[in-house]
Write a structure and sequence with these properties.
One of its GO terms (molecular function) is phosphatase activity. It holds the Pfam family Hydrolase_6. Its cofactor is Mg(2+). By secondary structure, the chain is α/β, with parallel strands linked by helices. The protein folds into 2 domains: about 110 residues, Rossmann fold (3-Layer(aba) Sandwich); about 100 residues, HAD superfamily/HAD-like (Rossmann fold), CATH 3.40.50.1000. It has 9 helices and 15 strands. The strands form 4 sheets. The protein has a 6-stranded parallel β-sheet, sandwiched between helices. The protein has a 5-stranded parallel β-sheet with strand order 7-6-8-9-12, with helices on both faces. Strands 2-3 form a two-stranded antiparallel ribbon. Helix 3 crosses helix 7 and helix 5 crosses helix 6. The longest helix has 12 residues. It is globular, with a radius of gyration of 18 Å. About 45% of the residues are buried.
């Protein structure tokens, strides 16, 4: 195996890596502080498109993290950036929350339900049958179908919730049209994050807790991949995949000495 360059840029997932079920992972606030003090560029990534970076900054602050707003990169931001590059100044019918609508507006998009260029599906806790029906009809009329992320379920204190991937499957079944997913495991999520902070794949590490999204995404983007065992994937489960992370550690606390 080719020896990699020293890590100069860090990308890390949020849920399962820094926080777990609303509680900080032990050592995670110290890990974030070490990244900040090192001066090395870093971004905290999330497939969740509900919240704006400012919202997430406030949520993390309540859990003891001191994270700059500009150090948070969401699937909503990546989606808006992608669409701005594909069709500048376009129009979209959006199903989602403030994290997605704010990002779309900032990218210069007009949100409309009248002959939009795109139907853009994101996360929301209030998916409505009316909105889904509208999306189906607009796609049938020729709108292109984009989804922020393929996650089938999302976490909650009460258990799993249907997420954007599940609703996208419903719309696809009704239209025969598959969406283009921008978020993880699409390596575009990683590349867009690297572009934001001027990172290079050969000297960047991606830290995640899921083999099927974080590790796969980092691998396909050419990054060093680090699986932590504080979230979804276990060490035994990681052995069942046809690809491997660069390494496995118990938690981000184990990475503090090398930053």
């Amino acid at each position: 195996m080719t020896e990699r360059k020293a890590i100069e840029t860090w990308l890390t997932d949020m849920d399962g890596v820094l926080v777990h079920e609303g509680v900080p992972v032990p050592g995670a606030p110290e890990f974030v502080n070490r990244m900040k003090s090192s001066g090395k560029p870093f971004l905290i990534l999330t497939n969740n498109s509900i919240y704006t970076p400012r919202d997430l900054q406030a949520r993390l602050a309540r859990m003891g993290f001191d994270v700059p707003e500009q150090s948070i990169w969401t699937a909503a931001l990546a989606t808006a950036q992608f669409l701005a590059g594909q069709r500048p100044g376009g129009t979209a019918y959006v199903i989602g929350e403030a994290g997605l609508t704010t990002a779309m507006h900032a990218a210069g998009y007009v949100l409309t339900e009248f002959a939009p260029d795109y139907v853009v599906l994101g996360e929301t806790r209030t998916y409505s049958f009316e909105a889904i029906t509208k999306a189906v009809r607009l796609i049938n009329d020729g709108a292109r179908f984009i989804c922020t992320n393929p996650d089938a379920t999302g976490p909650s204190n009460e258990g799993a919730l249907p997420a954007a991937g599940s609703v996208a499957a419903m719309i696809s079944k009704a239209t025969g049209v598959e969406p283009y997913f921008v978020g993880k495991p699409n390596p575009m999520m990683m590349r867009s994050a690297l572009n934001v902070i001027g990172g290079h794949s050969e000297s960047t590490a991606m830290i995640g807790d899921r083999m099927d999204t974080d590790v796969l995404c980092g691998l396909e983007a050419g990054l060093e991949t680090i699986l932590v065992l504080t979230g979804i994937s276990t060490r035994a489960e990681s052995e069942r995949y046809p690809y491997r992370p660069s390494r496995i550690v118990d938690s981000v606390a184990d990475l503090i000495p090398e930053i």
